[in-house]
Amino acid sequence: GVCLLVSCMSLLVQVGYRDPEIWRGVVRRSTALLAEGGVLLLYDTTRWGSYLDRASMEKFIAGEGLPLVVVAHSAAPGVAGAASSDSRLPEHMALAVLQKRLGCHQHHREASDLGAAACQRAAALREEGNRCFSAKSGRNVPKAVRCYAKALDAVAVASAQGAFSSAGSHREMASRLESNFSAALLEMGRAEEALLAADRAVLWDPDWKKAHFRRERALAALGRVEDLLA
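-> structure tokens emitted (230 positions)
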């Protein structure tokens, strides 16, 4: 494989009710796409099958002989009130980060180099996105959106490689990127996506006022006055 990052979001939210074991094939194919040291990022419901249950995932990986390691796993925010409005949008979600093992001929330094390169790429993409978004002439908001999205992917790779000096520096970078991402999405009229990005910015850094401001802007654009007043 050649990919440094493969992500799969909300697969079972969409089809889990009719095919709860579809994730197994997806993990197999994703593993083939990954380069050694690459990261597989999974965010989905825990409602169907055994997907994103850590013990079940590790048992599946071992049984299939896949060169993957679960490096992070945690509960994640779901869709508030979804259980009452749509049975296919569960509230219980999980986030898992898996990494393709380096071959025995690789040195540990290579993982460190990959993490450092991902950190540098995230910073460069953030700066490019900011230039595209804030330029007085030749402003390019769609390109800014693409830059921020790629920067967030790079942050995920860097985090999985342990490239950040502290958890705080990771959270700060992620929250600032999500905030910028939200602003650019909103300007393109993509208010629902802007709200999701702002929600993630708040989750990464709840004390950062601008993240809450971005969320309020997106809610206002969606006409969700009741949420603004809550």
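Residues 79-90, 104-108 have pLDDT under 50 and may be disordered.
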